[in-house]
Amino acid sequence: MNRSVTHPTILTTAALGVDRVLDTVGLYCPIPIVRTGEAIRGMERGQRLEILSDDRVILIDLPAWCRAHGHEYEGASEEEGVWRLRVRKAGRGTA
Amino acid sequence: MSGAIAPPGRRIKGIGLISGGLDSTLAARVLLEQGIDVVGLHFSTGFCMNDHRRALARPDEDPKRMRNEGLRAGADLGIPIEVLDAGEAYLRMVLKPRHGYGRFANPCIDCRIFMIHGAADYMREHGGDFVFTGEVLGQRPMSQHMQSLKLIEKECGIEGFLLRPLSAQHLPETEVERRGWVDRGGLLGISGRSRKEQMALSERWNLSDFPQPSGGCCFLADENFARRFHDKRTHADPTSIRKEEMILLKVGRHFRLAPGVKIIVARDASENEFLSRYEAEGWRFEALDCGSPITIVEGDPDEEMRRLIASITARYSDRRGQPLVEVAARHQGREERLTVPPVADAALEAWRL
Predict the structure, then answer these.
(1) Which of A85, A90, B13, B221 has the greatest count of CB atoms below 10 A from its CB?
(2) How does the average pLDDT of chain B come out, rounded?
(3) Does the distance separating the beta carbons of B44 and A65 come in below 8 Å?
(4) Do B39 and A29 touch (CB under 8 A)?
């Protein structure tokens, strides 16, 4: 049994001005946050991550997660029920 | 804050289990007072009532009840919070706990062991000097009396390196205290179910935004969920039960119509939306041309059973007052239509879980 999902058109990271795109469409929070932590751990400070999610709860969780870790939350935009959220890695050295 | 120092001159780091409740928040705060670096771990188990409420995302929900309390606590305390997926291993533990269940479906001792093990693994992989929890001696009947606290520590394989800052004064001195990494004098001596001391500390440290501690937040400790959970274990091979089946135990009204057939009837639009997001393999029922719950079926109902399921679906539709209701039954791309009377309420109780 899987959640039915509709993905938006995924652009390349260069076209989006980010270093990595993480697709969590179909996953309920906090699992997108788990995946965000895993993704950002492998990135360099100053790099940007874009997260795709169709769970609007991420609009609450991601800014809180960024505050806790010291990363910079750069905002979100929505297209056909899928949010694109951006994080710039700064952090205190864990994720 | 001076900053606790471990040889050879680096700062001490504690890895804590942070649910976001008052006790785990205070435990972290006690250590921060001593200048210890703290990293919080917040496990996503799949059985958290708050996460389920968030997944349903009802439009009238209080925004405060939509947040992840672990992340909120981390942001308030200024500590990083790692959210970890407890995943398949946690489900297997829940279905066959070595230390058994509490009053309902709560395997509290095994759950603590699972999470503290996870914290110890995290500590080995990412660095850290000890693990801490917000456990309070005597607060919970199954997992927080002296014997179980000792058992949990022993089974986790980190004897001497597991600190319970809120009850430390009642517990044997740990290696962490003996080595001077943590000042035992700055730890607390709280015990029992009264939360007076915790409330006083929350005022002192201006920690007012925590969730109210009165209600449980774990489905496994909920009587209604436990009834469905144990029914599931009875009617399926526990080793083959999937996480998705557990998720469905949280939603809707459940009726077991036969040993091999169970149905789930959504209770409102949010649950309809929740169920419609899944691609279930089995039959789905829905009354036509009216407000209707989605009914999903586990098992393979015969024709007579499908008529019964249609009647139950009709009973919870907006046309329940009418003598006959048309219901669509869909399965693997085909649809059959059944015109049935809504079932009588009295008949339902024999099947309800």
Answers:
(1) A85
(2) 92
(3) no
(4) no
